[in-house]
């Protein structure tokens, strides 16, 4: 039986979700919660090895292989780390989960969303987030924030790909229970305030 809350932070690369996740961890710790911060792809030793394969710049990875690697990482991470933490009553914060696969491999690469939904269900054993926060910024900000940063294989995708993903995220927010758009163009403190309001709405 799951006792803890499962919070997922989503959004395109460089949307600021890691900064917000760290701030949120401090906020939840101050409230006396037992918190686990984790990420996908990765989160366990085996899943981190899969992460290295899938994100290696220049690696030959077909779209279907890419999808299956993300799902393999998710299956390991969910079973080994997320579910036990939730059962122990921890608040689990995960940077990226099933919605990333729909956004990148589905809306972005064009793989059938029905296939992705099926694989997501298998990899998560049906686990769903209690809340999904989707950080979206305008393209102008992506370019400004990315200028000096290292790019992994997926960050080197072009503008059209990112626009498809953005539309995908907006679609998914519409049809996913407990998923919210967070305006990532705002300043860090305002974004954090919005995030805390959304959590409060869900008694987190
Ligand atoms: P990160 O840099 O936010 O850790 O994410 C790594 C990259 O992997 C990022 O470009 C998004 C991508 N990704 C997918 O394409 N599909 C997925 O299912 C996940 C979890 C991440």
Count of distinct strands: 5
Distance N to C terminus: 18 Å
Mind telling me the CATH superfamily name?
P-loop containing nucleotide triphosphate hydrolases
Q: Which fold does the CATH topology refer to?
A: Rossmann fold
Order of helices and strands: EHEHHEHHEHHEH
Uncertain runs are: none
Percentage of residues assigned to helices: 40-55%
> At CATH's second level, what is the architecture?
3-Layer(aba) Sandwich
Features:
single chain; globular; 5-stranded parallel beta sheet; binds thymidine-5'-phosphate; Rossmann fold; alpha/beta; 204 residues
Describe the structure.
The protein is α/β, with parallel strands linked by helices and 204 residues long. It has helices spanning 17-30, 45-55, 63-87, 98-108, 113-124, 139-146, 159-175, 188-201; strands at residues 6-10, 35-39, 91-95, 131-136, 179-183. The structure holds thymidine-5'-phosphate. Residues 13, 39-41, 55, 70, 96, 100-101, 104-105, 154-155 line the site of thymidine-5'-phosphate. Thymidine-5'-phosphate binds next to helix 4.
Annotate the secondary structure layout.
Blueprint: E1 6-10, H1 17-30, E2 35-39, H2 45-55, H3 63-87, E3 91-95, H4 98-108, H5 113-124, E4 131-136, H6 139-146, H7 159-175, E5 179-183, H8 188-201
Parallel strand pairs: 1-3, 1-4, 2-3, 4-5
The protein binds thymidine-5'-phosphate.
Thymidine-5'-phosphate binds next to helix 4.
């Amino acid at each position: 039986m799951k006792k803890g809350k499962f919070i997922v932070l989503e959004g395109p690369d460089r949307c600021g979700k890691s900064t917000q996740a760290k701030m949120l961890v401090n906020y939840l710790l101050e409230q006396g919660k037992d918190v686990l911060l984790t990420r996908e792809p990765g989160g366990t030793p085996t899943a981190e090895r899969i992460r290295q394969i899938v994100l290696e710049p220049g690696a030959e990875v077909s779209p279907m292989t890419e999808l299956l690697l993300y799902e393999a990482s998710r299956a390991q991470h969910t079973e080994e780390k997320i579910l036990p933490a939730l059962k122990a009553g921890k608040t689990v914060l995960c940077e990226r989960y099933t919605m990333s696969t729909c956004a990148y491999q589905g809306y972005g690469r064009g793989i059938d969303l029905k296939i992705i939904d099926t694989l997501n269900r298998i990899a998560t054993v049906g686990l769903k987030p209690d809340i999904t926060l989707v950080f979206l910024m305008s393209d102008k900000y992506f370019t400004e924030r990315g200028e000096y940063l290292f790019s992994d294989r997926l960050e080197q995708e072009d503008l059209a790909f990112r626009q498809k993903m953005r539309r995908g995220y907006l679609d998914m927010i519409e049809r996913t229970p407990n998923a919210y758009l967070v305006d990532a163009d705002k300043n860090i403190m305002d974004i954090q305030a919005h995030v805390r309001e959304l959590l409060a709405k869900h008694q987190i």
